[in-house]
From TrEMBL:
Membrane association type: Multi-pass membrane protein
TM segment ranges: 25-46, 81-107, 127-150, 156-173, 206-227, 276-297
The protein's name in its UniProt record: Phosphate transport system permease protein
Organism listed in the record: Natronorubrum sulfidifaciens JCM 14089
MF terms in GO: phosphate transmembrane transporter activity
Keywords in alphabetical order: Cell membrane, Membrane, Phosphate transport, Transmembrane, Transmembrane helix, Transport
Residues in ABC transmembrane type-1 domain copies: 82-294
Domain of life: Archaea
PANTHER family linked to this entry: PHOSPHATE TRANSPORT SYSTEM PERMEASE, PHOSPHATE TRANSPORT SYSTEM PERMEASE PROTEIN
Listed InterPro entries: MetI-like (IPR000515), MetI-like_sf (IPR035906), Phosphate_PstC (IPR011864)
Function noted in UniProt: Part of the binding-protein-dependent transport system for phosphate; probably responsible for the translocation of the substrate across the membrane.
Protein's cellular compartments: Cell membrane; Membrane
């Protein structure tokens, strides 16, 4: 090889190295933006919460059963908001988990390819509908149906919110679970069929246990989505913070309260406005805990196949 060829090769390699280095820093910058944004959100929530807890005891906040930070007599117990959020989350889970899991099993084990090509995109479209549309659907359809069965039901009620949020998170459960089930090797299915198992037995006794980590992770991620839902529950369940076991009563979730304060004319320097940050931090901790549990489940019960 001549000296000129060596020079050209070296120059081309240097250009490629600079290009790769530039692309690397672009990708790193994008990742850094997400990290800094998350840290910024955490700092804002902590700063606002510190100002709130300078006036309100954290014990009163975590154990109190009355929530009225802007209307006298003032009370700052967050438990009614947490209770309302948990009612919506548990109620939606009772709908989304069995329906989503059954849908995933059908798509993974029973559906023909042409049927799967229609159903799965339809579910993804369902996931893309704006949440405020779900809220109006709850008010205009679900609540009247509940009132027809239970005439004492008010316009705003927890049952309507739980049902509509459950419908919202079905696509997340079904899509993620179906992906996990589809990744199970066919060798396991064929071995079960060779032992005389039926398709139902293969689906429930082989495929679901083998994909358990992904299925459970989809449950937890869907519940995290339910915890953070805002507009649908704001329209459906109302703004009555109370601890009640009656799903036909109006309640208030943490996100609905944050919307209420965000659009109100409460003074920025008031304790009522600062409570927005305390509730936001509480919601952030709950969602973070759910996501951490999801990651632990995936790593703890992951099945690896050769």
């Amino acid at each position: 090889m001549s000296q000129a060829d060596t020079t050209i090769t070296t120059g081309g390699s240097s250009i490629d190295d600079r290009k790769n280095g530039f692309i690397k820093y672009v990708f790193f910058s994008c990742a850094l933006v997400t990290v800094l944004t998350t840290l910024g959100i955490i700092l804002v929530l902590i700063q606002g919460s510190i100002e709130f807890f300078q006036h309100v005891s954290i014990v009163e906040y975590l154990t109190g059963t009355n929530w009225s930070p802007v209307i006298q007599p003032y009370s700052y117990g967050v438990l009614p908001l947490v209770w309302g959020t948990l009612i919506i989350t548990v109620g939606s889970a009772l709908i989304a988990i069995p329906v989503g899991t059954a849908t995933a099993i059908y798509l993974s084990e029973y559906a023909e390819p042409r049927v799967r090509k229609v159903i799965k995109p339809t579910l993804e479209i369902l996931a893309g509908i704006p949440t405020i549309v779900y809220g109006f659907f709850a008010l205009s359809f679900i609540t009247p149906v509940i009132q027809f069965v239970f005439p004492q039901t008010g316009t705003f009620n927890a049952a309507s919110g739980a049902i509509v949020v459950g419908i919202m998170i079905i696509p997340m459960v079904s899509s993620l679970s179906e992906d996990a089930m589809s990744s199970v090797p066919d060798e396991l299915r064929n071995a079960a069929y060779g032992l005389g198992a039926t398709k139902f037995e293969v689906s429930t006794n082989v495929v679901v246990p083998a994909s358990l980590s992904g299925v459970v992770a989809s449950y937890i991620l869907a519940l995290s989505r339910a915890i953070g839902e805002t507009m649908a529950v704001t329209l459906a369940v109302g703004m009555t913070p109370q601890i009640t076991a009656n799903p036909l009563d109006s309640i208030q979730t943490m996100t609905a309260y944050m919307v209420q304060i965000g659009i109100s004319d409460v003074s920025v320097d008031s304790i009522g406005y600062q409570s927005l940050f305390a509730v936001g931090l509480t919601l952030f901790i709950l969602t973070l805990a759910m996501n951490m549990i999801s990651l632990w489940v995936k790593s703890r019960y992951r099945e690896e196949y050769q």
